[in-house]
Write a structure and sequence with these properties.
Length: 226
């Protein structure tokens, strides 16, 4: 199936820029890492699908994130050689499963073996369960998953960016705090560092988003009035 044509927007490329309010030279304490696929941090997601025979497969993806609010959507960059890519095109539905720290080894295993040759769920000793709202499995042992439908895809060269519309988000009830929000200290999601190729846990809470900046803005405003 040919990739659906994606709408493009013309961008005026500015070749030269004279900064008006930025310093033109700063302390030379930056080292260039080149045009690399390094950004901190990336998630550790496990994309689960059924193949054409109905067997469950799962692959780890770190080049992924939330893509849109309405409709709620995710993106995952997948090499077309992955069995998962074939499965997504065939079934048009998948889940994004979020492993907790205790499943780091399983997640890594899902990222080094192909479901084309192996039943990875069986080999890993994990349980595929059919998601309620899409024809795709989720990893029952992981604390959270998103049910997604293939919305679009875009060929960027080595990878296709897969856009999935989020149909439902499910999380184990014990992962919720008293306000019904997901407690990261309980969920313990993994993050991936692409340059060192290491998994990390999530650290301490730093502050409330959309609030600490607002307080800062207010303080600055107050300061300027004086
Ligand atoms: C930490 C980690 C992150 C990965 N991220 C991606 C990714 O974002 N996109 C991708 O195509 N492959 C990624 N991979 C590689 C696939 O998970 C791997 O090729 C897997 O064996 C594919 O399985 P499948 O053939 O059953 O689909 C990653 C692997 C690891 C270990």
């Amino acid at each position: 199936m040919p990739a659906k044509k994606t709408e493009t927007h013309k961008i005026d490329v500015q070749t030269e820029c004279t900064p008006t309010d930025a310093k033109t030279a700063g302390p030379d304490d930056f080292k260039s890492l080149g045009a690399a696929t390094i950004a901190h941090t990336t998630p550790v997601w496990v994309i689960a699908t059924y193949d054409k025979t109905g067997r469950a497969d799962a692959m780890t993806a770190a080049w992924a994130g939330i893509a849109n609010s309405t409709p709620a959507s995710v993106f995952v960059a997948i090499r077309p050689g992955r069995y998962t890519y074939e499965n997504i095109l065939e079934r048009r539905e998948f889940t994004v499963c979020i492993p907790s720290e205790e499943y780091a080894t399983h997640a890594d295993y899902f990222g080094i073996e192909s479901g084309r040759e192996t039943d990875k769920f069986e080999a890993a000793g994990l349980t595929p369960v059919r998601a309620g709202k899409v024809n795709a499995p989720y990893v029952a042992e992981f604390p959270m998953y998103l049910s997604c439908k293939l919305k679009d895809r875009m060929n960027l060269g080595s990878h296709f960016v897969i856009i999935g519309e989020i149909i439902d988000v499910r999380v184990q009830e014990k992962m919720l705090d008293s306000d019904g929000k997901i407690d990261l200290k309980k969920l313990k999601p993994l993050v991936y560092a692409p340059d060192s190729m290491k998994y990390f846990g999530v650290g301490d809470e730093i502050g409330q988003a959309f609030k600490i900046g607002k307080e800062f803005k207010k303080q600055k405003g107050d300061g300027e009035q004086k």
